[in-house]
Each structure stands twice: as C-alpha cells, then as structure tokens.
Sequence to fold (432 residues):
Amino acid sequence: MARKVRVTLPNIPLHILKKGINQESIFHDLEDYEVFYLFMVDISQKFEVKVYAYVLLKESFEVVISCSFEDNISKFMQILSQQYVLYYNKKYKRTGTIWEGRYKSSLIEKELFLEKVISYIDFVSMKNSLVNSVCSSTKDSKRLCIDEKEIEFIQNALNSESITGSKEFIQTIKNITGVSFFQKKRGRPQNKYIKGDKMYKKLELLSKEKHKDLKIGELKDLFFAKDIPSFPVLANEFELVSQSFPIVFTSEENPTIAAITSLGNQNLAMNSEGKWLGSYLPAVYRKYPFTYASNQDNPEQRAVAIDVEAPHIGKDFGEALFDEQSNQTELLKGIIEFLNSYEQDAIRAKMIAKIISDAGILEDRELSIGEGETKQVLAKGFRVIDIKKLYDLDDATLASWVRNGIISFINIHLKSLDNMQTLMNLLYARNN
Fold:
C-alpha cells in the first residue's frame, strides 16, 4: 500500500526510468526508436524540459532531464508516454497501455553527480548496443570514468526512488520538501505508527489484512480539529483559503505556510456544532482520517495510515475500503490518489516558504489586545512579509519570482492579512 512520494524541484536534474508492462518490448525496429525520439524532442521543447541524456532499450527507456517548472516534468512524461502508446497501438494493431505503472525517478545533485549519471547512461547504452544520445548542451562535456560501486549507487538510488547525491544534499532536499529519502530496504512495513498531528488519535498503517472489514461513513462534524489553532495551506488552495483566513509563515527554521483559525483558545473556523463556517473546506481536513505516516521501526518509510478511532470509521456502516477479495475499492483508490496529490502540493508550498524565508524578508508578528499587565496575546509564533525588505530585493530576484509565481503568492499573503480583523470581529461577536 505504501506509495513513494515523487518529488520534482525547479532546475534540479531528474533521472527517470520507465518500463514496458510485463517486461515486454516497447521498441521493435528502428522506426519505433526514431518516432519515440521525435516525440521526446517535440514535447521537451513544448514544456521547456532540458534533456541531458537518454537511452532507449527494448523493454524500457531512461532519461535525464530538468525544468524550471516542476509541474512540467510530469506533463512531459505523461504526454510522451501517451503519444507513443497511440503510435504503438496503431502500428501493431492492439489496445491498452504498454507501460508498467508509474515511472521511477531520482533527484540528482547536479554539481557532483550529473556527469556521473550521464556517463552511466552511456554505460547502459554501450552494454546493450542500443540507441543512445546526449543533447547538444552537454555532448561536448568531459565524460567521467564510472566504476562498479558508482553504477550500483546510481541504480539503487533510481530503483528505490531516492536521491543520487551526497548526504548533505539529501538533507538539504529533506529540509526543503519535508520528505525523507533513503535507499529502499526490503521487507513489508510492520503495522505500527509513530507520527501524526493533534487531529489523529490512533494512527495505524492501512493493511488489507487488518482493516479488510473497515468502512467509512459521512463526516458529520470537525470536532477532531477543534483544538488546532491553524492549518497547513497547500499551494493550490492559497487563493481559496485567503478569502476567509490570514495566511502566514510559521516561525520554525524551515517555515511552512499556514492559516490562522484561532484567537486565544477559541477556534473561530467552526460553530458549536462542529460545522465549518467558511465557504471552502481545506484539504487537510478533507483527507481525515487518512494521511501518510512514518513507520515506527523505520521512520523514513512512509505509508498510508488511518485513524482507527475516527467517529466515521467502523465495520457496520459506510462504504467499504476493501472488496471481498481484499482488493482496494474505487473509493480507497480515490483516497490514495488524493493523498498523493496532497503531498505534492504540500511540497510546493514548502518550497515557496523556503524561497521567501531564505530571502530574509520575514518578520515575527503576534496578535494581541491591551497593553502592559492587561495585554492578552491572541496569536503568536508566526511571521509575515516585511514589505520594505521585499521592495529592497534586487531586480533579478524579483523578476525570477514573477516568472515562478512567488510574487502572486506574496500578493495573496499580504491581502489575506486583512482577515486578522475579521477574526477579531468574530471573537468579539462570540464573546458578547
């Protein structure tokens, strides 16, 4: 049930492997190779994807690419795969996919390992005596010798969807994304839990053996979140959340983006019946009682988990998570897809927070009433953008932020701060 969270970052090379289904051939003659190559060139140009190297094997292909826009990597792979399937099925008079599930990928530490991975691609090509090429931007670069240990390291990083890089680089990526990377260990995860947040009472790794009879019913209230003063905001919901709540930065060394919902000890986002008062219910609450959690024996291993004490989880009501053959129902498949999407959008939000924080333009802020001995702090431990420091940034940084959408988020953030007064008004109305 565990599914690796795929991470792509702007301008960081990615080593990708995609295989044919059931180890069947996806290239049969020279025309197949040529058609795939032309598709790759055309689609890479369309999505501004830089191709460093590639190798086409009979049963798979590998490519080393990067892009300034991380979303374009998945679009590139999706359309490339689809286009070739259409060509292949028409030529060989067949239907259905030719690919084996998701592609595997590994982020590459550019300075230390990019040339090594390109040399590895050359090695794979020579070993198989098949099609290989390197794009014009790197074809004149010096090839590096590559030994057996380096080949094994690159292969393991790709197969485990870890990182091809140093320990320091892996830690840097973890700090940026919040995702742990490791070279995959064999064996099934044990059914233990270690990490959730205050919403979750008893998280268990979802298992078709242990939870085959579980069903999920209607979520009637949000009391599970009543003691949470803020919630994380995903990249794709900045605008929607900003219409009701102030969006701020947390005060940690590696800040996240959050929305304030409580002043003092009162959650102002829901009423006495636990109903959400805003027009948009954030994703963090919509994914409850599911999440990705870390295994207690192996904290770096993440899998789908469920709060077994959630009020709308049981065996006698609701829709089943597994069918009679212990296979995932369409409901559960949709939930897992939502969790994957959630993780990706959360990573993008962390990247935005990291970029802004590193620019040194955040200032600590608190919300309080009264002064001196009568002072009452209603919200603290958050940061906002200092407009003066923002205006003092160099033109190159600001231009880059415009292209990457950072400025759009900043405008949303600054406008959302008007909702501080809205929360104050709600608090006053509730107490009087």
Q: What stands out?
A: The first helix runs from residue 30 to 46. The first strand starts at residue 14 and ends at 19. The chain has twelve helices and 19 strands.
